[in-house]
Structures are given as C-alpha cells and as structure tokens.
Design a protein that fits this description.
CATH class: Alpha Beta
Strand content: 15-25%
Distance between the termini: 23 Å
Largest sheet: 7 strands, mixed
Radius of gyration: 19 Å
Number of helices: 12
Mean pLDDT: 91
Strand order of the largest sheet: 3-2-1-4-7-6-8
Order of helices and strands: EHEHEHEEHEHEHHHEEHHHH
Number of strands: 9
CATH topology: Spore Coat Polysaccharide Biosynthesis Protein SpsA, Chain A
Structural class: alpha/beta
Shape: globular
CATH architecture: Alpha-Beta Complex
CATH superfamily: Spore Coat Polysaccharide Biosynthesis Protein SpsA, Chain A
Length: 318
C-alpha cells in the first residue's frame, strides 16, 4: 500500500463531467495540505476536452488521473434490471465493483459518486478504521420510509431496511475485497441470476457485503430529504436520485452546490442545463420515481431475488 497517497475514485461518462468538476473542485478545496490525494477517474469515452478541463483542477498535493473502462464488461447490457433510477443505463455505475482488482497497489480507497459536494476533508474518512469489514458506508435514509421500497430492501435484497446502505460514498477495504474476489463474484451472480434490481450496483453491494459493513455517520452521505432537517456539520452532500439542484429549485442543500459551482469552468453549462430542463423532463422524472416504487413491490414478490437465492443455500454473500 502506498501510505503516502489517499486514492479517491470517481466514475463518469461524458455527460456528467460538469457535475464531477463541482464535486472534485469541492474535494480539493477542502483537502489538507498535509496529505497527498490522488483522484482516479474511471470513465467511459470521456472527451479530450473534458479530460483537459478536469485535469486542470489538479494541485501539487491532489493529482488527477484518468482510466478508461470497458474491457470485460460486455455481459452488462442495457436491460431494465441494469438501469439506474429505472430510466438511465450507464456502465459507469458498475465500475466501482472492479476497483479492488484494478488497483492492487492500494489496500484502502474511497469511492464517491459525481453528484456530490465534498465539504469535509476526505483524509478524515480515509483514516477511519475498517477492521475486517469490506466497506464503510451510510445507511440510505432517503427511501427507508417508502413502504414498497422498504419491503424491497428486506424481501428482495435481504437486508433490514435500516441497514441498507447507499453506495454513493464508500470507504473500501480493497485488500479484503481482493481476497474475496468481489469482481468475479459479482459477475458470477449477474450472469447466473440476472437479478431484477432498483439500484443495480447498490443492491449487489448490499447483498454481497451484508454483515461486513461499517456504518458511517450520516454526515458522510447526506441526501436531500423533504421531511427531515439538514444534517449539521455535513461532510459530503449527495444529490441522490432526482434531487438535483441543476434540475430543480428548492432542493435541500442546493445552495451549497451552487456556491461550489461558481468556481467551475462548467458554470455556464450547468446554468444552461438547468434553464433548459423542461416540464416534459420533470414529468418523466415523476413517472420514473413512481415506476421505481412500483417495481420495488413487484420485485419483492418475484421468485428470483437475492434473499431467496441466499436462503436456498447458494453463495450470495462474500
């Protein structure tokens, strides 16, 4: 393990480059000069222009490098069970599952989604002791109070609704995950069962890592929720699902995103994106959210689920 470097992984495609610039810029701004960080951006066909813009964010102690992904993922195709939010297919959501095998030089690392703002120093997260746990993550409080989704977590994924984690922020025990061959086990499950999923990579991680998860403070993955107060001393704000301040007004923590976006080279693009976000797109979002809720109940009642396969005696957990 390179003890002098804190590896921070992001995964994106071309369309998400503007939002990664805000996430990465915020992480760099709140990093400590006493530590060395390396942002490793796993991407699918990122344009040269976007690579150059994101590369320009690098500093003396926060380097930025790019790794193109694709080989070996041919079996992951665009089908409903592989879609994010039920409406969007991108291989990038699966990239995090291949980090341990791809980067044997690191025994530990941080993975963060690109729809975030990082207000804390990632060194603090990195220094958290994982013990024998495979990952550190936060319980997903954003949907736990939606009965069909809570049922899905317990009856389909097979974990208690309050223990179901969000995979947008992960502290990864890369050494342990290599030992249990996370990547090959994931592909084996995927190709054998083609589990119907609501949040594909997240559901696999919950099912595979159950019992080996260190639960982090909610401050490390604070998600906008309409009926809950903002978390004080928040470290990472995660604009999960449809709660995007670049699409909608009055999103919880939305002002924080726009504060950091002011420093982004993409600011004009982000503003234009929001101004052009149409009523049709918003209506589509609403329909997709309802579809996601409906599918939660349907999948929980289906015959092939993580829970049923696990209870049959087949190996699901790592």
């Amino acid at each position: 393990m390179n003890k002098n470097v804190i590896p921070v992984f992001f995964t994106i495609d071309d369309g998400y480059a503007p939002f990664l610039s805000v996430a990465l810029g915020s992480a760099i701004k709140n990093s400590s000069k006493e530590n060395n960080y390396k942002a490793i951006i796993l991407h699918e066909d990122l344009s040269k222009e976007n690579i150059e813009k994101l590369q320009s964010l690098a500093t003396d102690n926060f380097t930025v490098e790019f790794v193109q992904m694709k080989d070996g993922l041919e079996s992951i195709t665009d089908r409903m069970s592989n879609r994010l939010r039920c409406d969007y297919f991108t291989l990038t959501i699966y990239f995090r599952l291949f980090i341990p095998a791809m980067f044997p030089q690191f025994d530990k690392g941080i993975y963060i989604d690109s729809d975030v703002v990082v207000k804390g120093d990632l060194a603090e997260l990195f220094e958290t002791e994982l013990g024998d746990n495979y990952i550190g993550a936060c319980a997903d409080k954003s949907v736990v109070d939606v009965p069909p989704l809570a049922r899905y977590m317990e009856e389909a994924v097979g974990v208690d609704r309050h223990s179901y984690i969000n995979s947008g922020v992960l502290l990864m025990n890369l050494k342990k995950l290599r030992e249990v061959e996370l990547d090959s086990h994931f592909l084996s499950l995927l190709n054998t069962y083609h589990f119907d999923c609501i949040a594909p990579d997240q559901d696999y991680l919950n099912a595979m890592c159950s019992g080996k998860i260190l639960y982090l403070s909610d401050a490390w993955d604070a998600m906008p929720t309409e009926d809950k107060p903002e978390i004080e001393d928040v470290k990472i704000i995660h604009y999960n699902l449809f709660s995007k301040p670049w699409c909608y007004d009055n999103i919880q923590y939305g002002d924080v995103f726009w504060d950091y976006a002011q420093d982004s080279e993409y600011l004009e693009d982000i503003i234009a994106y929001k101004e052009s976000y149409s009523d049709e797109q918003k209506e589509s979002d609403s329909k997709c959210l309802q579809l996601l809720v409906n599918r939660g109940a349907q999948i929980a009642a289906s015959q092939i689920t993580f829970k049923r396969v696990f209870e049959s005696g087949e190996k699901v957990r790592l």
